[in-house]
Write a structure and sequence with these properties.
P-loop_NTPase, six-stranded parallel β-sheet, nucleotide-binding, DNA/RNA helicase, 650 residues
């Protein structure tokens, strides 16, 4: 059986179709073969999340239990470098990352060492790009299998009919095929990069043993994704191309765009709208940086559904977490030490890199050369910062030095300071016109009642926090219970039924849990809430574990669970805040310890704790569920809110 997944009409999908046809021509019975005997999955425009590379043009996975062979006249070698006589190779399984290039011959440089292609007047290594894709796919599969399956790679050069020969030898000798290819030439090009091992009497192409390969091919990576109702609304908003986004798109990369507003006022969406418009209309390639791994995965899911590339020839939008991206730069600049990210020395390394640049050890020419050398990771027309108010100063200064202040745009949340003192971004654009500044005040996420509730609660606890009530979206309710949501099976079912009735899917619900709601089990961090949902027979995306959090949920049937630290920027039709009082107390004690250590916080421990609580409180669209003891600071304030706003509380 052969399964093909992707959006018809794209060059990548055309390549996937060509691969399918090659397999059928070589093995005519493969389509009719039962999946339990032979299964080949081919997917175009595959998206990964949480890796240095997110886009893979075509991924092919095969598990062949029927004895199938390829025969080739090409010179092929085993893993020891010895020539394989007879040219017959058994194919048992393979996983391959394939990069498609449609460049004409005059836009490529092909040599024994690999392939260079011309992008925007610059020569860039397609072979290195494909190797990075291979490694990203390997990292993904290592997490889901807890093993080390072999991932092959290959370039598909569809702009030429055959590879060039130099002194009778084909270049490159492996890792690439022309537009005209066969199953044998494709698999030999893939396997020839490292040689073909011998198992028993056969030389064999194999990525993993049968057990591991079954896990690989059954994974959801190559299965078609279906958008939920919330997905569709977010996709429509990003693609709406409002006038304000069009104005900002023209500025990106030329002038600083700075969006300010409280949680739920649409900062991130407007930034994404502008980036999308910059890609569609201006062909710009933007990078969005966030500290929130769960938010990066959430945005990556949306971009995947919209088929927006990260590294297309006509621009695109890439998503990275801040420290991963900046650490990649520290490695390139030679200040990363042993190559391992060390949190205690991270800021010092950023300052060291700044000193290198200030002292002239690394100049602008060298920086631009590094961008060209690794264009997938570093070459962007504009860099966009989500929640830019609390970056370490050295980190922010280094980013602006690498890209220039005008190419760095940001959104920051008023009263959403989380990691320290406010970051000074102004120094990198001193004297520049402030044409890209916007102050957002409207509550765009929450229904009217939830805006009223959030404003009233902020006023009650003395926070200078307010959003304009969204009168175009009436309704919204708040539910407060004592005890754990884990034990509220009837409420869980009522919340689920209500969301489904409104046209939502389980994925559209968001659940936030405190550290006490997380346990370690068999090497994996899981939430008690996730265990509760599993007992109900529900699927979960339990992102309290970092390995899960880096990958976006691929099924609309999964209920999302994150720790409070990861909820910024996320939203849910219904948002459940488990143990909100624990978050409040945890943040209060953190500030108390900071004060004892002589750190100036700028606000009382209680004010910081409430400011932190406003972040999860502004995540819901329709329904907010809070669990906390009545006899707690949070519980007492909520009791006052219930008296003042009885119609909002269910």
């Amino acid at each position: 059986m052969i399964e093909l997944v992707g959006v018809p009409g794209s060059p990548e999908h055309d390549a996937a179709l060509a691969i399918k046809q090659a397999f059928i021509q070589t093995w005519p019975d493969i389509e009719a073969s039962p999946a339990e005997d032979d299964l080949i999955r081919i997917a175009s425009n595959v998206k990964l999340s949480g890796h240095k590379v997110s886009d893979i043009d075509v991924v092919v996975m095969a598990r062949l239990r029927t004895k199938r062979y390829i025969v080739t006249n090409a010179v092929i070698h085993d893993t020891e470098g010895n020539r394989i006589l007879g040219g017959q190779v058994r194919v048992r399984s393979f996983v391959a990352a394939i990069e498609v290039k449609n460049h004409a011959a005059d836009s490529m440089q092909i040599a024994a060492g690999g392939v260079m292609v011309r992008y925007s007047g610059k020569w860039k290594s397609a072979t290195a790009q494909n190797e990075e894709q291979r490694y990203a796919l390997l990292e993904y599969l290592q997490v889901i299998t807890n093993a080390n399956p072999w991932v092959y790679r290959c370039l598909m050069l569809r702009g030429i009919d055959q590879l060039p020969k130099v002194r009778g030898r084909i270049h490159p000798s492996a890792g690439a095929v022309p537009g005209q290819f066969t199953t044998a030439s494709l698999l030999v090009a893939m396997a020839g990069v490292n040689g073909i091992p011998k198992m028993g009497n056969d030389h064999v192409i194999r990525s993993a043993n049968d057990e591991i390969m079954e896990q690989v091919i059954d994974d959801s990576l190559l299965q078609p994704m279906v958008p939920s109702d919330l997905d569709r609304k977010r996709m429509d908003r990003i693609a709406a191309r409002p006038a304000e986004a069009q104005e900002l798109a023209a500025l990106l990369g030329e002038h600083r765009v700075h969006l300010r507003g409280h949680g739920g006022t649409g900062k991130t969406i407007l930034l994404l709208q502008a980036a999308y418009e910059a890609y569609v209309r201006h062909g710009k390639r933007c990078l969005l940086l966030t500290y929130n791994t769960a938010l990066a995965a959430d945005i990556q899911r949306t971009l995947s559904l919209m088929n927006i590339p990260a590294d297309g020839e006509g621009g695109g939008l890439a998503i990275r977490t801040v420290m991963s991206f900046m650490f990649s730069w520290l490695c390139k600049l030679g200040v990363a030490g042993d190559g391992q990210l060390d949190f205690p020395t991270y800021e010092a390394k950023c300052r060291e890199a700044l000193d290198y640049i200030d002292q002239g050890a690394v100049g602008e020419t060298e920086i631009e050369a590094l961008k060209t050398e690794d264009f997938i990771q570093f070459d962007f027309d504009a860099v966009l910062i989500d929640e830019g108010q609390d970056w370490p100063q050295a980190e922010a200064d280094l980013l602006c030095r690498l890209y220039g202040g005008n190419r760095v745009s940001l959104a920051d949340g008023m009263s959403q300071l989380v990691r320290g003192n406010p970051t000074n971004w102004k120094s990198s654009v001193v004297g520049q016109p402030k044409v890209g500044q916007r102050h957002l005040q409207g509550g765009l996420r929450m229904k009217a009642n939830l805006c009223v509730f959030a404003n009233a609660l902020a006023s009650e606890v003395g926070l200078p926090w307010r959003v304009d009530v969204n009168r175009d979206a009436p309704g919204g309710r708040v539910i407060v219970i004592e005890g754990s949501y884990c034990e509220a099976a009837d409420l869980q079912k009522e919340i689920m039924a209500s969301a489904l009735k409104a046209g939502n899917m389980p994925l559209d619900l968001l659940h936030c849990v405190p550290p006490s709601g997380v346990v370690d089990k068999e090497g994996l961090r899981i939430s008690r809430l996730g265990e509760s949902f599993t007992r109900q027979g529900w699927n979960v995306w339990d992102a309290v574990d970092d390995r899960i959090r880096r990958q976006f949920p691929r099924s609309v049937e999964e209920l999302r669970i994150v720790q409070y630290e990861s909820c910024r920027g996320l939203e849910g039709w219904t948002t459940v805040l488990e143990g909100l009082d624990q978050l409040w107390e945890l943040k209060r004690l953190q500030v108390v310890r900071d004060i004892q250590d002589g750190i100036v916080t700028g606000a009382s421990p209680e004010a910081v704790a409430w400011r932190w609580c406003m972040i999860p409180i502004t995540r819901p669209i329709d329904t907010l569920v809070i669990t906390c003891p009545v006899k707690s600071i949070v519980g007492e304030v909520l009791a006052v809110m219930r008296q003042k706003l009885p119609d909002i509380f269910a």
